[in-house]
User: Fold these one by one.
Assistant:
Number 1:
Amino acid sequence: MQITLSDLDINQEGQIVTVQAEGDVRRRLLDMGLVRGVKLKVLRKAPLGDPIAVFLKGFHLSLRIEEAKCIIVKKISNDDD
Amino acid sequence: MATKQIKVALLGNPNSGKTSLFNALAGTNQKVGNFSGVTIEKYEGVLKYESYEIKLIDLPGTYSLTAYSPEEVIARNYIIEDKPDVVIDVVDGSSLERNLYLTTQLMELETEMIVALNMFDEVEKAGTKIDIKQLQKLFGSHIITTSAVKKTGISSLLDHVVRVYEKKIDIKKNKLTLRLEIEDKLLDICELLKGVKGLKKYNHRWLAIKLMENDKEVYNLVKEYPVWIQLEEILKKSIIDCKNKYQSDPEVLITEDRHAFIHGAIKETVEFPSTKKKTLTEKIDSIIINRVLGFPIFMGIMWLVFQFTFKLGEAPMGWIDLFFEFLSGVATSVLPEGMVQSIIVDGIIAGVGGVLVFLPNILLLFIALAFLEGTGYMARAAFVIDKIMHKIGLHGKSFIPMITGFGCSIPAIMATRTLKNRGDRLTTIMIIPFMSCGAKLPVYVLLISAFFSTGAAGNVLFGIYVLGIIVALLSAKILKKTLFIGESEPFVMELPPYRMPTIKTTLIQAKIKAFMYLKKAGTIILAASILIWAASNFPQNKVLEARYEEQINQVNINRSLTQEKKDELLSNIEFENQYMQLEYSIAGRLGKSIEPFIKPLGFDWKIGVALGTGLAAKEVVVSTLGTIYSLGEVDEESVDLAEKLRADPDFTLATALSLMIFVLLYMPCIAAIGVFKKEAGAWKWIVIYAIYSTSAAWILSFTAYRVTLFITG
């Protein structure tokens, strides 16, 4: 089963498999560096549970769960790093 | 010899320190305008360097140069159409990988560029080592390390600007090579574009890349030419090829290649410190936006901003008020009584005073907002509140303008500039006036004190505030489902590292907003104040005036009266005269003519006039009622006015409630409309808003009036 960025727990790392968003959202995600092969880590959830904050390429990015669901990832075990 | 001019544009990611660098370069010698047709600020600065005059343009902060946001289109059109001599690409050294993405797009445009590797002090402090020489080679551009805060590298940057302009130094431009399948197609497309005369001024490879990236603007540009038929074939084929080979499309593949290039370059040239310790930003975030404290801290900060803006603004507002009172006092005593005095005192001085009185609030709010923005908290605020705002179809960033509306709609509407999406912005602008602003409070206080018991007063006041919020939220939902369907900014937002903003940058930002307000809103407000003045003073009733003179004379020559008694009689006569004059004036007649429309709400022509003059400023409703009920100068705490209202058989509890709701919801004051027009861009939105808000006001007031009448019998 495919897992998405929204399925990752806090502090869990993942690697992007593909981005399935469309239009503006997709362009924005691509420009921010969310492309195939990029590693990222979920940092936290907002106090109300949505959006989430992730760490990638040396910066912090926040996105809604709705958008995180479009990003297919595979888990990276934490000790593998 | 005339000095030669070098046109330099600054481009960079948001939060890359671009604005600070611009300030460091241009100093205070800058001016602000708008890019044509949009409300995106255009900052320009001029400085002398060696024998040149350098003209700087600060382009809007952007992550990319696609055609998705107005900022991006503006930045890129400026580079393509206005052809600056040199582009300074401001790159945040502490977030190199993401920042260099924009650099790759400048490479594609083959502009003359210099990379300013900004915040280099932070890079050094973190212990990161960068092989600048190699990085220069890879990106085919000079890279100058700078720190806008520490003011290092500034002269070196200017030096390079001049030398690049003089073509005295040059680093061989490097081409970012994309994967083979894409490059092949790019060649084919370029070959076709070569023959098109109208596209000569563009960089063909760039056009080709944009076509393959499915860029709307470039599509529309190239579509005009017959060569399009062949181009379309190639593009369609490339989509199929990419799908077959990579299960992806050219747009994604090109982006991947750019990121891969950067990733490789970073691996080759940057050595990160080996120890991975938590950054300061992570530490602060783990407290400030954590799941327990995040919300209370957010509310606390909002409360502080509010207090800072409106509490601290009270005193200077009072001084401005006093100053204008003093001024009108002087003018009244110096100028002879009559038309000229009236237009200067009641028209111009009152009008200008009405504009200036908001200045402290605007300055303070924008100091607070610029400070928060500079620290990096603004993005966190949006992060914390986004879930709630998203429920009504808005973006987390809409929240701050919305609550500012409780103080005053003017700074609130101006604060919507942080919203990049048109639909989000217009929706937020349109719901802001529903928040009970400070000027509506005197009206509530007057009516509540006149018609409600002290016990109920607090609840009624709270109720009216809540009603405003509910109407605002519902309106946002309605607007987002009708006028602005599908128009919202995706919530994919950087949480920038925490930084201490420079005082200079913060103050410059606030100053700029203040000037913008004075310049644009000021003229509209002033004109409108004079118009309202004229409407309530014209036409003059000569018969009335003659009788008035006569009455005064009679009192004055009556020897049987004491001076005290005379004064009392005289002021009574004056108020009565004012009342009659107002009734006779255009405003009074308008009030009478709209009476049929407002009758169902329990309002007579007198309230109609007050609502009309209330457009100058909402608290004027109170003073107009004062004039109408012949009391002269009144304020909301005036016991007399409250008593007079109660004594009026037509003015009941139901009328009071209905009036409060109407004042809450109907057209905002002229000052706000002025700013509304400027920020929304077109009169169309004001017309729509006027109709919408007035109908909402009418329906709710009517309901409240009828229900209350029914209950109270």
Note: The helical segments of chain A are 23-31, 65-68.
Number 2:
Amino acid sequence: MDEEYDVIVLGTGLTECILSGLLSVEGKKVLHIDRNDYYGGDSASLNLTQLYRKFRPNEAPPSELGRDRDYAVDLIPKFIIASGELTKILVHTDVTRYLEFKQIAGSFVYRDGKISKVPSTEMEAVKSPLMGLFEKRRAKKFFEFLQGWKDDDPATHQGIDLDRDSMKTVYEKFGLEPGTQDFIGHAMALYLDDDYITKPARPTYDRIILYTSSMARYGKSPYIYPLYGLGELPQSFARLSAIYGGTYMLDKHIDEIVTDVDGKFVGVSSGGETVKAKQVIGDPSYFGAGSTSESGAIRVVEVGKVVRAICFLKHPIPGTDDSDSLQIIIPQNQVGRRNDIYIAMVSSTHNVCAKDIYVAIVSTIVETDKPELEIAPGLNLLGPIHEKFLSISPLYQPTTLGDQDNIFITRSYDATSHFETVVEDVQDIWKRVMGAELVLKKREVEVQE
Amino acid sequence: MQTRKKPFREMPRGHSQTQTPHSLRCGSYHSTSTANMSKQFQFKLVLLGESAVGKSSLVLRFVKDQFDDYRESTIGAAFLTQTVTLEDQTTVKFEIWDTAGQERYKSLAPMYYRNANCAVVVYDITQTASLEKARTWIRELQRQADPSIVIALCGNKSDLSARRQVTEEEAKKYAEEEGLMWAETSAKTGEGVTEIFTAIAKKLPLTAPPSARAGGARPAGGAGSGVDLNRQSANAQGQNDACNC
């Protein structure tokens, strides 16, 4: 550890690993450290031993759950949007060669006490119980309007200005019912709350188009998922980084972030040694998150909490046509909340658990002092729950941009059901670290036939 | 038992021509112009062993028949493939994974071992400690990798036998006890290199389970449920799609 690096990266979560990989490809000399003996940090997928060590340290995994190595249980419930930004990074960096993806079989939405499939074909749409006949016609006109929109052709605008008019105005123009608005805003635009309604319609338009184009790409749902769990994503970017010279150290405790008298980053110390670098990037847990006795600079603040319950089921979720994987969105209005409840479920089809086990994660943003009760509407949809691992995770944000101290801190993984905000964080940090926008280039690879 | 990815992939020639190469993974399958009965296999091969025992050099010799005396630690050796044609015209394509230096601080990811069909564990015959390290890697493989994995123990730098610290007998005995293939090689002179990879290529199709052999197709290909991110769907732009709702 006696060398000097351009960048030290702390934590091997997905955000840090993407950055590490991209920085190494760019020619930066990167040292990447994790205190854990596994990759992934908060975005890891754990085997049974690791899962029990984390949630039930005094308990061994029951043998009836099967082989330890058959499990890769995600800590955060997220899927990859097929046409989203993460997919672009995966393709441009060629890390797709280390990964294999499957579709998520279905996307469902909760309305009036029942769950229904978000239609993925015209046939499904016609039969869908989500809307009545007349509402379907109105919705059809609404979607035709969105699909037909061309910025430079006012004839397609029907009097609407996406950049000025609110989404409320657009909904009203097409006379859509509140339940349909819930469906569109939450199950398609994937907003967690209703704040978007009074804002200009453009971002909502973009999100709906992203959703429908992702849905069109592979057919069943807008989501794809890597075999063996989300933890494969950080691992593959870590490999990319290593191939381009990045040095990896797992199971390495960081004692201190060393700064000079002006508070500028100097290096990190571990076991009495200090490694120097020009810049440091890391997840909030390396910068005082969760510690009460932080002396010196307050580098991260808590901005909310997410409650997540990892549930092992021995059956598919009722009412989903025995889907092997799915997302269920419970829009907040449907259960009298401010934030949606999400259910993400995967199974042995994705090589993340033993056969006949289904792993469902129910999550939401915490609004009260009884978080477990808040996810009850989600838990109730699952049927009998075989094992449940509950966690309440604070969400941290950095207090500074890093321009003064060369310390760049990533954000915690939020409650959204996908990785788009993770990529935004990557782009944002890249810009601050490198002083230029992240431009994805196809990297040169040595492929010999 | 859960449906794991098939431990190997077999592609009868006809198959490989009609099937679009699955660009998610690196494979593009050139078909040989020989008899129609020839079979193609593709296997993932991982390298293991202490730093500086010559893992990358061994692959460089095997794949490009080159050697570089002052090779830096592995940088940029992303992904190499090499095809071995056996006497019966069966072709075996190795998809070779180098450690990319992640072995140095015990930071190899589970992904590395995942679905590996064979491993070449390298030690340096001039360094006793490197054989000890090889034993550790072999234990790790037995713990992490698929039980059907074929492991070859490889004593590299045989051109430096004047400085030998590990005897042939010692290594061979250990290999026999553990049921490993074993050979000494010199990436520098090329001695034994092709031979050990060919021996692996011969052994692999034989050890592959009959069920996988009958299946034939790639796990994510054909009618499979896997998706190809690189595929540009005609609908991918979304703008002009008829909406489904």
Note: Chain A touches chain B through 70 residues (CB under 8 Å).
Number 3:
Amino acid sequence: MPKTLVLKLEGVFKSFARVETDDVTNAVADVNLSMRNGEFISLVGTSGCGKSTILRMIAGLISPTAGRLTINGVPIEGPGPERGFVFQKPALFPWLTVEKNISFGLRMSGHTAENGERLARIIHLVGLEDFKNDYPGQLSGGMAQRAALARSLINQPDILLLDEPLGALDAFTRMNIQDELLSIWQKKKQLMIMVTHDVDEAVYMGTRVLVMEAHPGRIRTELPIEMEYPRNRSSALFVEYRNRILEMLHYGTKER
Amino acid sequence: MTETNRGERFLTMTKSQLLELEREEKTSAQKRWDVAVSLLPVLCCAAALLEYGCVPNKYPNASPQRYAALLILAGGIWLLLWVWAIMRYRRGDKVRFRTLRHHAPFYAVLFLLLAAFDYLTLKTGRLLYPFIPWLNDIINAAAADWKSLLVSTLFSLRLLFLGYFSGAASGLVTGIACGYSSRVRYWVHPLIKVLGPIPPVTWVPLVMLLAASLFGGSVFIIALGTWFSVSVAAMTGIASVDRAYYDAARTLGASERQIVLHVAIPHAVPNILQGMTQGMSSACISLMIAEMLGVEAGLGWYITWAKSWAMYNRMFAAIIVICMVFNAVTKGLDLIKKRVLRYQSEVVQ
């Protein structure tokens, strides 16, 4: 069993200075959350509600204006390889081959002993054996995102942060990668936190769905999804969950 | 063969087979025309030889066989290439012949121009000798003085590369530092901005006065122009790195130093190579001017020296050598660029 890991956000605020005026944008206001390994958290909400901001704070790419983010009680300071991040754009380095992109994290941390074996396993996991010597410019959107996923997984992160990783993909590729992500998570039981626009995806994948509202960005509801995997997208329960979330999102915009 | 079996072969085609398939089939008249055109350079070479050998000379022409040998060599090379291309064509590789056919009209006209030039100089003197010598005269001059030409070439190359590489190296350092660190940029960028637009040769008089040696001074002037191009290019390249790459690298555990080495610099490589190409042309200009003004060696010096003794044929010989050397250097840089940037050319269109 993997060791327990608890990620806590306590009274987290994040405001951005605006470029033109003297105002600030309150992207995230008073967010309190507790998440642990083995959970798959789906973050949904209208655009501009601060979903990505929360993810970037957990990654350590930006720091909160106020509040505390801790992992097992230790405050988060800056990014680290134990928190993987998959961006909406794959952001693969165009000058490196797929294989070199995927092994980037290993080379940065100076692991050399187990490199070859772990690398081959991860490349196999995402099905890119035939493309490992290609450059990212030659890959389709789905393959590029698989490579980006593999690049984060190579560091064996305890937390995997997914910022709409499937948003730009076609429906079939998206469903395939959803299942791949679920099987990776079921094997390793990391803490996965995924931002998405797609309510279907949120319900299909998450153990818990956090619905956010905008201006300022707050957590409106936490909704545990009590369904067995693999989930049936057309079952009555699934549809009910989806409708409830859609209603909440609609209500959230009307109130503004 | 059944219908499906015939279809199967399309699945295992190579790229060249596909291109061949998609190309329109040529008629036999077109093919005959292509063969004729591809042999035109040989024909024009023969015409140039005839003109050179049969039309009476206006001036005495020493060692006439040299230019003739050069023409025969050039025509012979074309003929050999042609035979080789035809053999490849018979074996199904049509690309070589097509390339040859593509270049044939150009080389044919080139041979005709050589003949016309010979006619206007050696045969009729329409272009005034000795200011414009005929080609055999230039070859004779080069042959008579090949030792000094070679030494001058080596000297020029030494100066060029010393200046170019020290300029490129220091340009890389300033460019990368300015691109990545805003504190360095604060202090160094104004310097680049002010010094940059001044052509490096402006400093020649001052450098001649101050530098401990003319050679060192020339290295400095050549380096200056290269330094400017490379540092500006590297700076732009690094400043334009998409933030997403930095974010990705940081979440993958890269340290600040590793981000510079593994993200910022590789990202700037296309810009840097562009700057190095620009720097090379600026370095070549500076080299010539430095050699013509002060340094008493090198091809630039050779040209002014030959001119001052009214040995125009030697001057032209040196100009031809310069042309060849600079072309070779640029071509070399181009090859490096293609190799390093191959990831860009392999992008799916």
Note: The CA atoms of residues 180 and 260 of chain B lie 8 Å apart.
